[in-house]
């Protein structure tokens, strides 16, 4: 078991994700074209936990889908370790907004589905690996339960395990803790930090909550409204490991106000534009 | 059955005992008994328009007489076989067709318009052409039964495939599943709830249709039995036929529900 862990550590490839001038336009017949992403560029450094924050409907999920390979950029480059991303792949695993656990599979079956695909690992090897992860997030006794038998927080943890067991170069988390109650959410953030510390994976975490971004991230990318692009990058130099005490420090407040300033400028723009741009927003929703 | 039992951690016999002792069973039983009491009162002239209906006691006597004849059981057998043939054939053809239409856009383009053109035609409107086309009466009744269940299952499966949440498929693709693996391990299980719903609705329609078809075109079966009782002016016999049809439909639905529970250990059907 310990040997296995070491081997995995050695196999760990931390990827570097780069987006260069990515554009994405949704065209719906009978509606004005919606420019979801415009010249969007940023780098997710190797082994970092990069958080993307932005107002609701600013193209964050579009960006996640493009990085994961479910959607394509109309122009610009998406590079993982220098190689262009052309479609979904095992090196980029996404954790979705709504639960994407397969309801007909037990927790263990969900977690071992990926590793056993494409003639990958054999079943017992995959189960060992999955078990080690499930153990870390307190799901050892729930391995044979179906997702519907778990609480919301447990489902999210199971999903994290399912993604981590793939040992991806980049993990993309698209508002994974949305809809959880405050307590569960905080607990989930701590679980994520523990897993991040132990695996050292490159993570792109998308959220609309500033506190979450600050608590988790190494750097925060603030997105603009539509057409979405990264407006500012804020380095979060708070010490790790972090716990709730970090929320009371002066440095935390400084960074928070810096991010908030940038974000609220964008938030205010939405309300200013809302009257005139109702159609535009409407067509974007339909397209995304 | 063995699988379902282990999943729920209790044997079938245990669950049945538990069910019979439950308030749900008591309520259902009270409703059925209450119905017969009202019926008895009605036929005894205590309610208007019901004097022509024989009392439950008369019907029970007729029921016993029927049950002592081989013809009654033969009718059960014939109707059940027709339902089974039509229903099973509808599943065997309808499930793949629905999956194909939902999974492959080109296939849907070719098949869907024709399908939608045929779907509104009621099963009984197929009776004349089916009698002309099929060599035997038996095969034409089974065919009409098939029509009754076929369109329902296809519509349900097609709806089920289209309603699969995108991320369930996307996740599997990211994990490296081939299109074939996505189909067998994600799309098919995700559609099972819709398949079971289609089967539940379909089995009911199948019984409706087989009875009507037997009255029109059959020489045997529970529908024919009921019709003959009417022609003979044997009113208790009509009621016996009707109750038999009700029981047959109920038992079939239970059987389908059990198949559904067995197919979906991760959720209860209804």
Structure description:
Chain A has 288 residues and is an alpha/beta fold. Chain A is built from nine helices and ten strands. Chain A has a domain at 16-91 and 171-179 and 202-287: P-loop containing nucleotide triphosphate hydrolases (Rossmann fold, 3-Layer(aba) Sandwich), CATH 3.40.50. In chain A, strand 4 (75-80) and strand 5 (83-84) form a beta hairpin. In chain A, helix 3 packs across helix 4 (123-136), helix 3 packs parallel to helix 5 (152-164) and helix 5 (152-164) runs parallel beside helix 6. The radius of gyration of chain A is 19 Å and the shape is globular. The relative contact order of chain A is 0.19. By secondary structure, chain B is mostly helical. Chain B has two domains: 1-53, no CATH class; 55-263, MetI-like (MetI-like fold), CATH 1.10.3720. In chain B, helix 5 (70-103) packs antiparallel against helix 10 (179-217), helix 7 crosses helix 8 (137-162) and helix 8 runs antiparallel to helix 10 (179-217). The chains are: A alpha/beta (288), B mainly alpha (270). At the A-B interface, strand 6 of A face helix 9 and helix 10 of B.
């Amino acid at each position: 078991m310990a040997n296995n862990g070491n081997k995995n550590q050695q196999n760990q490839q931390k990827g570097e994700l780069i987006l260069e001038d990515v554009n994405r336009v949704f065209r719906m017949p009978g509606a004005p074209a919606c420019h979801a992403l415009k010249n969007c560029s940023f780098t997710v450094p190797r082994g970092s936990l990069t958080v993307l924050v932005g107002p609701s409907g600013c193209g964050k999920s579009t960006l996640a889908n493009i990085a994961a390979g479910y959607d394509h950029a109309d122009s610009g480059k998406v590079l993982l370790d220098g190689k262009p991303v052309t479609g979904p792949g095992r090196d980029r695993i996404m954790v979705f907004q709504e639960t994407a656990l397969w309801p007909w599979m037990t927790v263990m079956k969900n977690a071992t589905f990926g590793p056993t695909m494409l003639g990958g690992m054999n079943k017992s090897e995959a189960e060992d690996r999955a078990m080690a992860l499930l153990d870390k997030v307190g799901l050892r006794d729930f391995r044979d339960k179906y997702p519907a038998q778990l609480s919301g927080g447990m489902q999210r943890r199971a999903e994290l395990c399912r993604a981590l067991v793939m040992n991806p170069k980049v993990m993309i988390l698209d508002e994974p803790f949305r809809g959880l109650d405050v307590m569960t959410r905080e607990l989930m953030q701590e679980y994520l930090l523990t897993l991040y510390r132990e695996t050292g994976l490159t993570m792109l975490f998308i959220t609309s909550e500033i506190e979450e971004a600050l608590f988790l991230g190494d750097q925060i990318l603030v997105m603009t409204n539509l057409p979405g692009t990264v407006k500012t990058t804020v380095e979060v130099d708070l010490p790790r490991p972090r716990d709730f005490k970090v929320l009371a420090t002066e440095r935390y407040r400084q960074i928070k106000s810096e991010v908030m300033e940038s974000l609220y400028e964008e938030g205010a723009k939405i309300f200013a534009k809302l009257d005139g741009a109702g159609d535009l927003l409407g067509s974007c929703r339909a397209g995304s | 059955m063995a699988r379902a039992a282990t999943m729920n951690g209790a044997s079938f016999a245990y669950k049945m005992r538990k069910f019979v002792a439950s308030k749900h069973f008591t309520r259902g039983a009270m409703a059925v008994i209450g119905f017969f009491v009202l019926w008895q009162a009605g036929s005894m002239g205590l309610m208007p328009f019901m004097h022509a209906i024989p009392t439950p006691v008369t019907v029970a006597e007729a029921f016993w007489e029927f049950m002592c004849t081989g013809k009654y059981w033969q009718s059960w057998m014939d109707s059940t076989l027709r339902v089974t043939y039509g229903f099973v054939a509808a599943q065997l053809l309808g499930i793949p067709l629905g999956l194909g239409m939902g999974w492959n856009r080109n296939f849907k383009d070719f098949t869907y318009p024709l399908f939608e053109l045929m779907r509104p035609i009621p099963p009984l409107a197929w009776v004349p052409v089916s009698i002309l086309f099929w060599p035997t009466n038996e095969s034409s009744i089974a065919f009409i039964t098939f029509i009754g269940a076929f369109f329902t299952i296809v519509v349900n499966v097609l709806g089920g495939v289209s309603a699969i949440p995108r991320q369930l498929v996307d996740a599997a693709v990211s994990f490296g599943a081939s299109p074939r693996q996505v189909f067998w391990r994600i799309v098919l299980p995700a559609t099972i709830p819709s398949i079971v719903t289609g089967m539940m609705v379909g089995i009911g329609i199948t019984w409706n249709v087989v009875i009507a078809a037997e009255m029109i075109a059959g020489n045997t079966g529970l529908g024919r039995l009921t019709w003959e009782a009417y022609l003979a002016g044997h009113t208790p016999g009509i009621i016996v036929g009707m109750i038999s049809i009700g029981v047959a439909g109920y038992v079939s639905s239970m059987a389908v529900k059990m198949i559904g529970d067995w197919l979906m250990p991760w959720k209860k059907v209804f």
